[in-house]
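Sample A.
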Amino acid sequence: MRLFLVLTAAKALAPPSTKHTSWSSTKRAGIWSTGRVVAVRSSSYDVEGGDTSSAPYDIEEPPAPAAEPPKDVAALKSKLFAACAAADRGFAASPADRAEIEALLDELSPLSPIEEPTRGIADGAADAPLRKCWRLVYTSASDVSTLAANPLASLGGIYQDARELPVVVNVIDSFPRLLANLPPDTASKLATTTRLRVQTRARPRSATRVGLSFERVGAEQLAVLGQAVPDWLPRPAVDLPQLGLDVQRRIFNVGDDEDPRDAASNPAFFDVMYLDGELLVIKQGSPGGMFAAVAVDDLARGY
């Protein structure tokens, strides 16, 4: 019995054998590790005492998936502008055209280089990112697209003039539809253009959301039969009634400690989806719809 115990203890204390058969000199095995499989590579090599060992000496991670190539913003914008032109700013867009254009807008949105497009709006800062005159190249908003159905007038330039922040003026030029069917030389001699202005006051609600308060609506005649209208002619305008904050709180169902102009239930806003030095993409709150506009130096003359 005592001899058996001695032999058992000696066996337990003996170092494990590191000798391997020839077939195991080079091998690979799959090992589960932290929920994933890694490849273990081993190879026999000499150890002290003349034996060999095949302990793992290298672990190979699975190859990382190939990184998605960066999207070319210039190429996306080029496709967008071509598609918008072919669809006449969205006024002649088929459902397939709209799907193509808005897919391009969706691709551009996460690539916007300006993190806080509403910066500087409240105080009219000179370096505010939105401080430009923007001319429409596409819309899917029903309150604008239905204007093209007018049987008597065609639409000219449509703008969002934000050069005097926090005031933002929406501008729509129109001219007799008959002129669109005339040769360019003849049409220019008969140019007759009417300009509609809707003045709003912008208010930043978040880094990307701009709230709007509508203040005034006005109209002016820019040209009649190719002749500019004198500046002394009256330009009729109507100031819109402004509701008090208490009334707005009841309308938008917010508490006394909340500014109703910033309420989530207040639909007078737009979200900036993309903005750089030449392109603005926004999505309006009500009645909904997307707008894409390019920066221009000034409003068109209209004649």
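Sample B, a different protein:
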Amino acid sequence: MEKIAIQLWKKNDIDEDEFKNFLVKKVPSSLADIASNYQVNIVDKDVQDASVLIQSSYPPSPDAIVFLKVKSLFHAERELKVFESISKKVLSYIVSESKIIEADESKNLNKRTEGFSQIVFLEKPKEMDRFSWFDHWTHHHTEIAIETQSNFLYTQNTVVRNLQKESPNFIAIIEECFPKGAMSDPEEFYAAKGNKELLEKNLGIMMASCEKFIDFSKIEVIPTSRYLVI
């Protein structure tokens, strides 16, 4: 089984609604025979309030990120070309998935997941070796991310390999879902609603950990609407 993360930049003559309809309603039928899981994360009007959270070292940010699972990329490459018909740029990655916080996905199937989903693409600082990077992420930072944030779904994806030579050298891709209010309210984002002291504490702990393994000059943070279709 292989999980694939696909960054999509829509063609200029395609509007937001047409792009979303194609990804959420039309593509699944063409992939039904090969995909055991298909999820669309799209930047739309429902996440406008989260624009302050956007970070992009490689602007412009993608308009959507698709996550899907197939038995083998070898048998799926032809079908995956479906995304090229509506996108001016496609970059994709095979990843290894680790589900840290799971949700009852039966209530999310074929509709928009509540709140919003923040997708983060990370690169390793040049001065840090891979072992140390993953050791900090898994044995130190993960628990902090759970304790200091209001995330109710948290998936860590380790990038196994890029599928295009020109892709940035991302080491990991994060999927996190947060309550709607966390789009614009830092207190809600950092699990400190109504408590400014706790906000400062959680934010400080989180940033101190991030600074130890994240290169902020090479990062993508994209607030999205999440649709689990298959």
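Observation for Sample B: The mean pLDDT is 97.
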